[in-house]
Amino acid sequence: MIEQNFIEMFIEEMNEEGRSEATVRNYVYDLKYFNKWAQENVEEFDPAQRGTGGVPTHKQAFKKYATHLKNSGAKPATINRRLQSLRTFFNVMKRKGHVEANPMDGIKPKKVAKQNETKWLDRNQVKAIFDEIKRIANDKKRVKYHAIFSLMVNAGLRVDELVNLKENEVDFENKLITVTNGKGEKFRHVPLNKATAQSVRHWLLYREDLDVESDFLFPSERSPQMTTRGVQHMAGRLNENLKFHFTVHQLRHTFLKNVADTTGKIEIVASLAGHDSVDTSRRYIEPSMKEIAEALNGNEYDF
User: Which domains does the chain have, with CATH numbers?
Assistant: First the structure.
């Protein structure tokens, strides 16, 4: 088992590296999932094979854990994320001198078909979302919703980036948004298009009337800053009346897919997405399963 003090040390390291709240939350969830398995399979761990401070290093046990995941029926993406979470954790432990080697080295991820299954929304679905926003009776709430969802689908902001966005990071004159991480460090610039700029300006007129002092573009009614859960709750309210279900992250996928389709250049997608590697952005260049199906539809043999 991985002791709590090492998990806390890992969380602190991830926060210092500027990882998003969602990423850190997933890491912690995956480590606890591993701990649950380890408790049920304690016989797999040799007490003698532990690093400094008691970090488990028994490679054979981690191989059996990987086999357990691959036979669990979970989606390949979930399996690979859980393996990667452990790999990242032990990389930190190795860097800090608590283990000599990463026990996850050599443990391969579950193979995933190369066809792109990333989900993004089509134009009619995006229109339906904004049509639903326009039905909100309360003026201030409607305008706030419109600005928030415009920034996600037209600028590709992650939810944590959106709630950390400050008013002075929206540059109307130069038509740029400065996106920062949770520690306020500059991350990237994203163009501010005309429609989104108009939506944000409209929100600023209502923001002035809020009885709360804040530098953030989207304070809540009672605190200087909205939470990611607050934005997800807004999406949930919209989903109640839609004929399809969407997530806030799909809005970012939609933005990046549109950039990929318009430019055809993976470097531009990576720059706007804030990806460290262009390989992460490749999913938006490759055709989706829906696009493949549509391309094959006219070639189907039906005798």
Answer: 4-95 (1.10.150.130), 123-289 (1.10.443.10)
| String of DSSP letters for 204-240 | HHHHTT-SS--SBSS--SSSSS--HHHHHHHHHHHHT
pLDDT means per 10 residues, the chain with 303 residues, are 87 87 90 87 62 61 86 83 91 88 84 59 93 94 96 92 93 91 68 93 89 88 88 92 90 87 78 72 61 56 49
User: How open is the CA angle 293-295-298, to the nearest 5 degrees?
Assistant: 100
The number of residues in the chain equals 303
Say if residues 170 and 177 touch (Cβ distance below 8 Å): yes
Contacts of 56 by beta carbon, 8 Å cutoff, 6+ apart? 1, 2, 38, 45, 49, 50, 103
In sign, the C-alpha dihedral spanning 57, 60, 65, 67 is positive
The DSSP 8-state label assigned to residue 26 in this structure reads H
Cα separation values, 101 from 32, 49, 50, 89, 92, Å: 21, 12, 11, 12, 11
Q: Is 9 exposed, middle or buried (0-12, 13-18, 19+ CB in 10 A)?
A: middle
Entry pTM: 0.57
Per the CB < 8 A criterion, the answer to whether 49 and 99 are in contact is no
Q: Which amino acid is at 209?
A: D
Give 100-124 as a DSSP string.
SS-TTTT-PPPP--SSB------HH
Rounded distance, CA 234 to CA 117, Å?
Answer: 26
79 with 27: CB under 8 angstroms? no
Give 206's contacts (C-beta < 8 A, 6+ positions apart): 139, 140, 143, 144
Joined tokens for residue 150:
């415009």
How far is residue 93's CA from residue 7's CA, in Å, rounded to a whole number? Answer: 10
Distance CA 164, CA 231 (A): 12
